[in-house]
Amino acid sequence: MSGLTRRGFLGVTAALAASFSLPQQALARVLLEPAVPADVPTTLQQTILQRTVAQKNNYRVLTTGAGDPFVVRPDLVDADPSPARVAARRSLAYLGHTSDIHVMDAQTPGWLDPVAAFAFTLLPGVCRPQETLTVHVQSAMVQAVHDVANSPVTGAPMIAVLNTGDSSDRLSNLELRWYIDIFDGKSVQPNSGAPGQYEGPQLWQETTYAYHPEDPSNDPYGAYGFPTIPGMLEAVVNSTVESVGSPAPWYTVYGNHDVTLNGTFATDESFRNLATGSQRAYAFPGLATSLFRGMATDISPATRLLDGLRQQFGNNTGFKTITANTERSILTGVDYMAQHLDSPDLPGPVGHGFTQANVDNKTTYWKADIGPALRVFGLDTCNLVMGADGAVPQSQFDWLQSELEQVQADGKLAIVLSHHNSLTLENEAHNIFAPGEKLIHAPEFIDMLLKFPNLVAWLNGHTHINTIQAHRKPTGAGGFFEITTASCIDYPQQAQTVELVDNKDGTMSIFCVTLDHASPASWTQGDFSQIGLASLSRELSSNDWSADPLLRRGSPLDRNVELLLLAPFDLSTITDAALETEFATRKAQLAASAGGA
Fold it and tell me: What's the pLDDT tens digit per position in 29-49?
């Protein structure tokens, strides 16, 4: 440790040993280990690709391919990068980035599956073949992030994991609880129905629009070539999914699926009753007449009462009776933030960006200092009225602009988090509760961000595609990179690492590395283990015949990259001693989560 004095190192070690209940001498040995690029599993070593030959009809299984090397992107600088930067670089902040986890309660009656029978592409994603496997995938992704807790570029420890929304899929409190618990290192039983029994459209023969793993011969997936997998649904509802937990404090923001039905529509009392009741629609006409009628503005109290009784006790055409569960209640108001506050100190932080003040004031955006070099701003770009795309309300825009002025004065780098990206920041539906508030869209938002050289990156998701855009100043070099990661629900089911590095030559780099979740590339028939089911999910998702899943990987320019920028200020003001203290804290936390140093 070059920055800390011997006395400083001993003091930091003693304090961390006491804080994390670790043996001091053992911790000291861990902290003294030199930082070298970590040999960890990433797509630098190996990628996962579809086989070129179909297994049956159009269905293809997966295999491994060569790794993707780093591509250097000097989009925002004019001079050629100096080769000397490789030996000089030091890590300022090494981060994980996940998005669009879409944890699903596949048995909830509060969903729109029958729409797939009416028009499969009307609401994409309402009936995915892998919908029962999302908790298994999230656990495998958390394991993958844990496996790369030390940087493959510098060896620095991960200091935070940033999650950019759509964590739950069906607006369910239960889904939200599952996703939080997996990140926090708890176990989850992904079954909201009868013990040991799957109750849902993937088993019912009437739902010819769904994938039936027991027998797909009468659904469109079978015609495509999807396999028969007897025992899969039983294995899922009987499983207990274990999680290693996040290797560092994790932070999150709202996604459109966290606030609206299918990420698009507001809900009403009729839908909320349906979600917790014992009636689930399997046919579109029944869903339309019973549920959508409840959204009419002129519906009478008597009709609402009758609809509620039908939803709770039957007598609805096109519905099946399932096990009711009040834990499937629909997220409303500040539920999303309140549930994040119900979390342990480790991996932390409590609230994961949100605070009690957010709940009390109903403000859905936040800021946090992450290490000595970085301040992160979490935005809520979701629209509560209509539409999957987003915008930045004027109040948030003004707040962020003021905060970016402050971060410059404080001599820190800044990253903005949001769910929506620049291609989808265009929603114009105004909230009836704030009808006069202006909505800021992508061009104006980007122009504002470009005024602040300390803002080096905008991390987001929403489109489920690996994409990296350079936003350059109108005149001269400089600007920031917009980094959009893929999802955990659709192929390639990836996350990424993002590392800010000081090159000590007037430039800095952002290294991005894509991550596959920690499960076999090729699924073995009958492997219903926890990682086997995650592997199966990836294979099923790669055969999404309603889209083009292979394009979601992005190009080589969107995956493993070194993004060069001008240093926005003298980065030597961020001292080695401050960085080493933060890195020591994260190493101690990781040692404590592993059971000791």
Answer: 999 998 899 999 999 999 999
